[in-house]
Write a structure and sequence with these properties.
Strand content: 25-35%
CATH architecture of the largest domain: 3-Layer(aba) Sandwich
Strand order of the largest sheet: 2-3-4-1-5-6
Order of helices and strands: EHEHHHEHEHEEHEEEEEEEEEEEE
Distance between the termini: 84 Å
CATH superfamily of the largest domain: P-loop containing nucleotide triphosphate hydrolases
CATH topology of the largest domain: Rossmann fold
Structural class: alpha/beta
Number of strands: 18
CATH class of the largest domain: Alpha Beta
Largest sheet: 6 strands, mixed
């Protein structure tokens, strides 16, 4: 009698039910392996469901693996014709669209070279320009804004926004919760193949962020690295300086060809050592952020305040508040933000700096948890913050 190998089944997705209407934008979030890419591939028609059904009427454009349909030996121009036919763009229509595609991709004379000579960024630019040359009824995006340089990311965001305003239905999968917030009116949270939540963007993202923080705290507690040391940006490209003014500097002076943060200062702290929290000397929190931008571009500068163990408290940015950083010349921009009479109760807090494009849609650079501060509230009061209130 023979033995039959028994294989345990695994459901990449189970009991996921939803519908979208014209002009809606649904964000899809979740940890790695949650089933996000599987969902998008089902909607794009590249795989079929084992059970159930998928109805996605109208012209569907899927941005999943940019450049996957290109032939490395063909030139960029030849690949437009080859890959265009794979996504339903005929030769005559492609001839009409070609000037716009080439202008968006910005490849210049390289369009005549074999694709195998392209950098990954050049392949991505050509592929995105092609697949978005015709506005679809349904647009499916999987992490498209995580590739390419900052200028290209901004162009992608602008095109996606234009599609949405024109009535295109969009499914947007991304680990960038910032872009999800700005592009989506609903969010689905997937967890191990199941739909944990589906609803209003802020409500679902708040629950998902709580999940992320809990996971990070658990990972941190299991890490052998000792807690409490101050790290600048969590990366090697910034350094902390303990001076009369607490300051975080870029190790290398930005060259002006790309957007970059230069410094992050807390103006009213006692900063004797970089490895301990800087103590606020007054009840005001006064922060100055400096960045460098390419010629002709202006930035948006932003700040986030969190508790030391990662619970977000507040964020603010020049774009959100209708403010504009001041130009210091030579591509250098600066902005200051003051939180008067800071109402946070006694404790350690973490400050993060962010650099965006002037519209606040593209994240150029971030220095997460670059400064730790100690706030001493004048009263001994339980809780986190003193909110404005009145007794009646």
């Amino acid at each position: 009698m023979g033995l039959r190998a028994h294989r345990e089944g695994h459901w990449a997705l189970a009991a996921v039910n939803f519908e979208l209407h014209r002009g809606q934008c649904l964000g899809v979030v979740g940890d790695n392996g949650a089933g996000k890419s599987t969902l998008l591939k089902l909607l794009a028609g590249t795989i079929q469901p084992s059970v159930g059904s998928v109805a996605c009427p109208g012209r569907v454009t899927a941005i999943l693996e940019l450049g996957a349909g290109f032939h490395p030996e063909f030139s960029g121009r030849e690949n437009l014709l080859f890959a265009g036919s794979l996504i339903g763009i005929g030769p005559n229509e492609l001839l009409r669209l070609e000037p716009e595609i080439l202008a968006f991709a910005e490849l210049g004379d390289a369009i005549e070279r074999p694709v195998k000579t392209y950098s990954s960024g050049m392949v991505v630019r050509l592929a995105f320009a092609l697949v978005t040359a015709v506005q679809p009824e349904v647009l499916i995006i999987d992490e498209a804004l995580a590739v390419g340089d900052q200028a290209f990311q901004r162009k992608c965001t602008e095109r996606i926004t234009a599609f949405r305003k024109a009535g295109c239905t969009i499914l947007f999968c991304s680990h960038s919760l910032y872009h999800v917030r700005h592009l989506c009116d609903q969010v689905m949270w997937l967890d191990q193949g199941h739909m944990r939540a589906l609803g209003e963007t802020e409500a679902v993202l708040a629950a998902y962020e709580t999940h992320i923080r809990a996971r990070l705290v658990k990972e941190k507690s299991a890490s052998p690295t000792s807690a409490g040391s101050q790290k600048a940006g969590g990366a090697s490209d910034v350094r902390v300086s303990a001076q009369k003014v607490g300051r975080v500097n870029a190790l290398v002076e930005p060259d002006g060809t790309r957007p970059a943060l230069m410094s992050f200062e807390v103006l009213n702290v006692q900063a004797d050592r970089p490895d301990v929290p800087w103590r606020l000397l007054t009840q005001d929190l006064n922060v100055r952020i400096t960045a460098r931008m390419p010629e002709g571009e202006s930035p948006s500068l932003a700040l986030m305040i969190e508790q030391a163990h990662g619970v977000g408290i507040t964020t603010t940015g020049t774009h959100a508040d209708g403010a504009r950083p001041r130009s210091l010349g030579n591509g250098v921009w600066q902005a200051e933000v003051v939180f008067p009479n800071l109402s946070l109760h006694t404790g350690e807090y973490v400050l993060s700096a962010y650099l965006f494009d002037e519209h606040g849609m593209t994240v150029y650079e971030e220095w997460p948890a670059c400064v730790h501060i100690l706030q001493v509230y004048p009263e001994t009061t339980p809780g986190l913050v003193r909110l404005p209130h009145e007794w009646r």
